[in-house]
Amino acid sequence: MADEIHETTAPDGTTHTTTIIDREPRRGGGWGMGLILLVVLAVAAFVAFQFLANDKTESGAITEAAQKVGNAAEDVGDAAQKAVD
Predict the structure, then answer these.
(1) 72 vs 55: CA distance, rounded Å
(2) Which one of 13, 42, 68, 79 has the fewest CB atoms closer than 10 angstroms to its CB?
(3) Neighbouring residues of 21: CB distance < 8 A, sequence distance ≥ 6
(4) Parallel, antiparallel, or unpaired: how do β-strands 3-9 and 15-21 relate?
């Protein structure tokens, strides 16, 4: 740690003193960055799981609707067969 003191005297006789204090850089900034990264990853995981859950729900609804259409077509086919007999 090195401190510097500079004195400047103006032509009118006034003196101005400047002190420069050289401090060691702070350590431990990694904790804050690590915490921020952890929060960002948690939010990203939550959003990803929500997206995947919505995709599964949508696929399940489409599958169920297709089965209902298939069942209805089978019922119509059975009714038509009975009408012909």
Answers:
(1) 26
(2) 13
(3) 1, 3
(4) antiparallel
pLDDT string in tens for the chain (85-residue length): 567 888 888 888 888 888 888 777 766 667 777 888 889 999 998 888 887 777 777 777 888 888 888 888 888 887 877 777 6
R_g over Cα of the chain: 38
How far does Cα 39 stand from its chain's mean position? 8
3-state secondary structure of 85: coil
What is d(CA 80, CA 73) in angstroms, rounded to the nearest whole number?
A: 10
- Check: CB of residue 22 under 8 Å from CB of residue 5: no
Provide the total of helices (H) and of strands (E) in the chain, helices listed first.
Answer: 1, 2
Residue boundaries of the structural domains of the chain: 3-84
On whether the CB atoms of residues 19 and 7 are closer than 8 A, the answer is: no
